[in-house]
Amino acid sequence: MKAFTVDRYGKKSTLTLADVPMPELRDDEVLVEVHAAGVNLLDAKLRNGEFKLILPYRTPFVLGHDVAGVVVEVGRNVRQFKAGDEVYSRPDDFRIGTFAEFVPVKETSLALKPKNLTMEEAASLPLVALTAWQALVEKARLKRGQKIFIQAGSGGVGTFAIQLAKHLGATVATTTGTGNVAWVKSLGADVVIDYKKDEFEKVLSGYDVVLNSQDGKTLEKSLNVLQPGGQLISISGPPDPAFAEEIKAPWFVKQVLRALSFDTRRKAKHLNVDYSFLFMKASGSQLRQITPLIESGAIRPVVDKVFPFEATNEALAYVESGRAKGKVVIKVR
Hints:
By secondary structure, this protein is an alpha/beta fold.
C-alpha cells in the first residue's frame, strides 16, 4: 500500500511517499480503508523529533493521527464492528499511521462516523474533539456558569473547544487575529481578544479554567487570569510528574519532566491555582459520546482546506504555518 513515512527526524525533513507492506491486523483491531486523514500540529512535532523523549518511534514509520474510512476486515475478537461500517478514530500511540491507504485501529479506539458528516469532515474531528473533551469534561469538569479562557480560538482544538464549552454552559474567552474576530464569535465565544491589538492578561481576570495551547510565555501570563482555586490545563507542555507516572516513564525521563515543569508548578502553587499537562488518549467510548453532539448540530466541524493525498507534505507545511482556520484534511480515497 502507499503511505507517507518519516524516514528521519528533523524540521527540514519531508515525508516520503513509499510502498509499504499492508499492516498486520491484531485480534482486537479493525482494518480501516482510509478515505480521509486529519493533519495536526502533533504530526509536525513528531516528525521534528520534539516528542522523542515520550514517544520514541523508530524510523521509518507512517505518520497520521486522525482517520475516517470504511471497515474492510475485523480481528477475531472484534464484536462491535463489521466490514462496510463507516468509522472514525484517533488511533493509539505506537499504532498511528493514517497517512496511508489502510490503517489498523483498536476496537476500543473506534466509533461509527457521524451520519451527517462527509469523510473529510469526520477525519477533521477525532484528535481535537478528544483533546477538548478530555480537557474540559474529564479534567476541568467544566460547569454551567463557569468562565474559561481558550487560547487560539481559530485553531483546530480552539474551534472545537469553544463550541463544547458553550454546550456545557460556560462563558468563553479566546484570542485570535483581527480577521477572525467575528468568525470566532460565530462559533460561540463571548469575549474575543485580538492579540494584534490587546494583551489578554490585561483584559481577563477571575477565570475558572484556562486551556493553554501556546508557548511558555503565554502560559505564564495565563496563570494570572485565573482566580484562586482555578486550573490551567496545558496541551503544549511542559509535561508534569503526574503525566510521567501516567505513561510509566523510565526514571530518568521522570526526572527530566519534573525539571521541565518545575518553574510552572512553583508559580501555579504560589498563585494558588492548579497546573496540569494533558496529552490526549485514544478513546472510542468518548467519540461515541461526542457523536450525538455532532449529529444534533450542537458542534460542527470546521475544515479549512482539503489537500489530495499526494500533497501531504504541503498539508503539513500549511498546518505548521499557523494560518489554518480550523482543521486541515487529506483526501486519501
